[in-house]
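Re: Re: token formats

Sure, here are both.
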Amino acid sequence: MDTKVKINSKTYQLQRYPKTFDKSLRAWSNAELLALDYIAEKEIDHLHLFNDRFGMWNCALQHKEITAIWTYASQQKAIRQNLKLNNFSTEIDFKTPLDDLQNVEVALIKIPKALELFELFLQQIHTASNKKTEVVCGFMTKYFSPSFIRVAEQYFEEVTQSKAWKKARLLILKIPKKEFQNKNLINTIQWEDKALRQYYGVFSSGSLDIGTQFFLETLEVKTEELKVLDLASGNGVIAYEVTKQNPLAEVTLLDDFNLAIESSKINLEGKKAEFLCDDTLEELKENSFDLVVSNPPFHFEYENNIEIALNLFKGVENCLKNNGRFLLVANSHLNYSTHLTKLFTSVSVLQQNKKFQIIECIKKR
């Protein structure tokens, strides 16, 4: 696994967070290097950085004034980890995609997999732009979609594409459109009697994903399950169903994605709920939950990666009470039961269809 990268005659140490054992994965891409090369000769006082997933741009541009727009708790940790690794200050001006920005001069975006999140970034930039604003968007050519250009052209008059370099390209956006009305970038999804609302970029924007639907159709919350954790909670629909079945339940929602947490706050307004934006369960007390429910992630942008879910499972075992239950839905091909039997004394498949399994784990000590 490469951990060193040379940028403009300087060498930086960069490590992935969360840690991975896949030696083919790096903490940077050629798209990010190409963006740095493009701005290398420009006189820039202040940069806004979007989707700097592991902190490469924050490290290489640490001599500049930077505002980093974060979307994941794990992203914040990765940025600070790599700044510290290179002996740079870890004091960062962090903003979320929902925060107001001031005077965007140059923005760098590593285009995310979720096209809606890309649009949310562009609207945030446009609101704080001027006639000299320039947005540099990097992507790997194998992930290119004409939709990148269609979205960009809604916000900027001039959208050009660079030549390819090591399978990477840039979209350069200039001249923000004057006549533009901000969209309300929130989707509405109907689930039974509930109109769920979620910000652009949150998983499964068009409708409730079929894995979660299968889980909700089979979920039965027991009356004695009063302390419940919704892990990788997304828009909060599973936690909402828990409170519907057991109005006395207190739910904790935990998700790595800050826009998911902000969406779930809307959907569980007035409920007994706590919201945590984090990528681990380390802040939760041991033996504190009667029930943990989850549709755990196994995608990391374009990567399929079950390492994240397996680490979460260890945290679940720690925070469950004795005789507590862990209920999850998973794609059958992931074979999670094999891993879960190493953590829980009782693991069984409650329901399954052609694609998904509902797995129940019981903690007994």
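Second one below.
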Amino acid sequence: MYGKAFAPEYQGQLRDMSVNTAYEDVLAAALERESLAVDEGSGLELAQARLAVAEAYRRLGRLDEADAAWRASYRAARDAGEQGAMAWALWSGGTLARQRGQMTAAVRWLSSARDLAKKAGELIAYGYSVAGIAETLRIRGDYEEARVLHEELLAEARRRGECRHTVWALEGLAQLDRNAGDLDSAWRRFDEAAEIAEAGGDERGLAWALRGLADVMSLRGEHDEALRLLSRAEQICRRMDLTSALAYNRKMRGNVLFRACWYGEAARTYRDAQNMFRSINEPRGAALAELGLLKSLDKLGRPRPVTERDLRALRDALDSRELRHTRRMVEEAISEMAEIAA
């Protein structure tokens, strides 16, 4: 049995905000609380308000402002001698680094957050930090280590009945299964994640689970149903101002359209997603959208040598250490085109 989802990153006077509050509203409330905390001279309240500011900016895709806010939160927590609040600020910084494609920095910040949280006895911050490390390793392509961490997190989340942690762990494992080609297991995990998220009122988790289910459905040839699930997830993303999640939803819509052989619509959708990712400085998403766009244009008859040139340029622009999995996908596309040409 799982409890209702809550947002532990909203702390102090902001703790009563719903996990599903739209991020423009979160930002307004957090900025107001930050101003009051400055006047009150409360270092802990200031750190907590700035944490919420950082998370709102990050979710809205305002990454430079998010970077300044989490660092300011950390300084306020450090000056107040609050190790738990320092851990939360580092968690926010690590999560931001991952969003920017800076995987090495993300692991470093999240590991520091984990260690501080453990020292401070902040169990939830500890769990969030470990979950962030697992997700970063998975995105970077370190699948075995990521699976071990996700399995540990899932067992702990089930034991504690924590809705959001259970959903995150299930979705991480589902993505690993999907990447390994085990669509049945991926479907079961995404489906369970969606059920738990919906029952617990975790709309963020539900949006990601629906995206995963749509991916599996489209791989099985059920394209119309996949598009329906993506439309439902898109409504959640727009309602909550989930800028990055909305861009990834758009990119997945491109994937579904491509698999359905609707290449013109796929190209337009990938281009939309690419522009969305570029507007929030998210390189991994932008690279994935560009890869889909180039493959779609190839199907539409674009001269192959031009496409191969652009794919090689995309590959060379991706850091092999930071975005290993994404680079490998581009290399596979180059190899496939070479095989077809031969």
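Residues 58 and 96 are 7 Å apart (CA to CA). The radius of gyration is 20 Å.
- S.
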